Model the fold of this input.
Amino acid sequence: MKNLTYIFILTLCTFLLIGCSEDLVDQVQTGSLKGVVIKKGTNQPLKNVKIITTPSTETVFTKDDGTFLIENMPLGDYSVKAELTGYLVNMQGVSIKNKNQTVSIVFEMSDDDALNTPPTAPVLLTPTDNSVNQPLSVDLVWTATDADSTDILKYKLVVKNDFDQNVIEINDLTEKHYFLQNLKFGVTYYWQVSVSDGINPTVNSPVFRFKTSDVPNNRFHYVKKTNGNYYIVSSNENNTNFQFTPLTANSWRPRMNQNAGLIAFLRTVAGSTQIFTSRPDGSDVTQVTTLSVSGFNNAEIDFSWSMNGKELIYPSFNKLYRINKDGSGLELIYTTPDGSFISECDWSYDGSKIALKTNDPNGYNVKIYVIDMAGNTIATALENVAGAAGGLNWSVDGNLLLYTRDISGYQDNNYRQLNTNIFIYNMQANTSTNISSASQKPAGTNDLDPRFSPNNAEVIFTNTSNDGISTRNIAKITLQDNKRTALFPDAEMPDWE
Done:
């Protein structure tokens, strides 16, 4: 009996030991999972990526080199998930079948933008392709769409032309249009728009083209003022016009010469006043002078072409110079005998005489007289009067000379004029006729800067209030009936050639 009991106990312990041994074996049958996480398309290692398994084991994060390791994973099948803010979640399945097995895995993670839809190619609306006779300022309009409503679309505009190598490139536009200005006459422009949502590759529109209108035969030029700068406008009599000089350059006193095919004007350069020329379309701007045009007041200074368009004359304090239109041949031709400043000059059409207006440094003690090409005084239209005067212009035959005078005789430090009238001086009769009073100039206004019309039948001029700050307007007087007609509002310093 004792022997049987002993045998039973021994057998029971053996079974228990075998069972315990199997449990211990099961506990140590594990493997490992190692891997690396990279950015899709660049193979850039991604750090701090959260690695989670299902069934759950240890949660780990990738190192700086994108690697991770999970050890002591029980044998079995797992779903492994990689998570990182800003990237799409990536999941892969792995199977660890053998004891101490190490399974390797590579995650390629795409950022959140991978599913973003690119915008459509821009559709160019206006001007339509192959448009002609376009103005010098054109509103380029297009459209584009994006299925992802939260995307911010930015546009890039590129404009080229068949005239020069200039390329206009405007970046980061958010509006679906751009107002293109300061174009040239008779030039074909090519434009293209590209769009980006900041995520997908840029999408380009087709290339459209348009052509601007030909150069108009404008005979009127005048000056407007903005932000303290003068700029010149080219116009016909109906005031169909275009901006002749840029707003950024202080340019005034336009003078056209039909024989030269050029328009000369004054412009400020590094604090001095110089003469420039340009073609009627505003191109080929050329500085003529280097010795500055100078006097008591830049706004009151004037110069003159020769009739043949080869030369110009201009004042510099008490001296009068002649210069070729290309800037060569500078020559001193006259010096005032009393040291007074020459503010204005006008060369007769036949080239035989020059009208001068001189004054003191304050603009007063005015004298208007005529010299021959040897510098001899041959006539005097005005002298020994108080107040401002100026506005010289010869008639075609060289017998009549326009000028202005403030008949109030008022003088102050601001060169204010109270009642400036236009006169015509007759060289042969040595008489002056007031055409402002004959045409019923409005009271309290000044008539300034007169010029004969090309046929001498009319006079164009500026009229403005004598308060010195009101708007200036250009009008004309018909000499036959002394009728006044308004021409150009908010304008001054007219030229009619």
Remarks:
- The chain has three domains: 30-113, 116-212, 220-496.
- The two ends are 147 Å apart (CA to CA).
- The domain at 30-113 is CATH 2.60.40.1120 (Immunoglobulin-like).
